[in-house]
Fold this protein.
Amino acid sequence: MRVRDLDLDAVTTVEHDDDAYLGEINDIVGFHIRLAHGACYRHFTETFVELELTQKQVSVMWLVADHPGISQIDLGQKLRMDRATTMTIVNRLQARHYLRREKSPTDGRKQALYLQPAGEAVLNEAKKAIREHENWVKSRFSDAEVKTLMELLARIHE
Amino acid sequence: MRVRDLDLDAVTTVEHDDDAYLGEINDIVGFHIRLAHGACYRHFTETFVELELTQKQVSVMWLVADHPGISQIDLGQKLRMDRATTMTIVNRLQARHYLRREKSPTDGRKQALYLQPAGEAVLNEAKKAIREHENWVKSRFSDAEVKTLMELLARIHE
DNA sequence: TGAGATTGTATGCAATACTAACGAATAGGC
DNA sequence: GCCTATTCGTTAGTATTGCATACAATCTCA
């Protein structure tokens, strides 16, 4: 818990932290999901500031590495992104020569995606940074709690 | 689990669903937080399409209702938003006459925020919609699981 | 073969989030 | 009380994500 906004305003008193003041909204599950996501997102961004990669970009490179030749539509479905959003992310990664498009031999409508050597190198760096980031998330949980958390979260997005 | 991308590509076989194909990235806690957040976000958007409100906008109105006269900086700290982001959201809500700014009597640098009557009316509608949305989230959990999930999430963002 | 569905692409729009800078107001040390 | 540093609101600019829409190429299936 960080130190913040104590004794700043007559509306509040000094001996509680933020959460004591939130009110009803504190009971909303979605609210906590959003805050947790935001905290995660910010830490991720700090961890990846040197690599200049976002969560989405890393996810895409990671999936392309594990599924060479995957199409944009399949990629989007795995990450729950629509075609247009997938396009912009792939475009950026292609512009940085991290991956390439290639016409699918089995389906002329599809583009098969492959990592470029530069992309593989960056992904390896990214995986190291991910490990740091994961440790930051997991540091507050026991192994059993991590397992529980992931199971509960999976039930929401599956 | 929705039906999707079966028999679409030679890379995959047909008897598994998406998660079986994700690979290593499936073990990353942050990945599941992001997916769960995305699922939540999309359902929220669908639920609030008629009210034309986003999660942030509802959160801000809700907090202003529970903390009349709150300053923008305090609001931002409770929702983990910086000053600039808070500004744009308050601007939009003010333009729609849902809340108003008033110079703080105790600190000339601050603006005190108050809900307008229109904002109160909309917030009441929003709370009904939130109840629907919450039921959608909670429908897959027992009460104990909801409690566990919220405690674990709170540890991330606190 | 032909109609309908799928995929990639392009364009535009909205919301979120951050940085940097500036002025007004406050707070704290002296 | 005064001066300096800090805080708060504001504006402007940039990047990312997400969605809708439209179009062309391709595939599927009746």
Q: What stands out?
A: The helical segments of chain A are 29-47, 55-66, 72-79, 83-95, 117-138, 143-157. Chain A touches chain B through 70 residues (CB under 8 Å). Residues 2-157 of chain A form a domain with the Arc Repressor Mutant, subunit A fold (CATH 1.10.10.10).
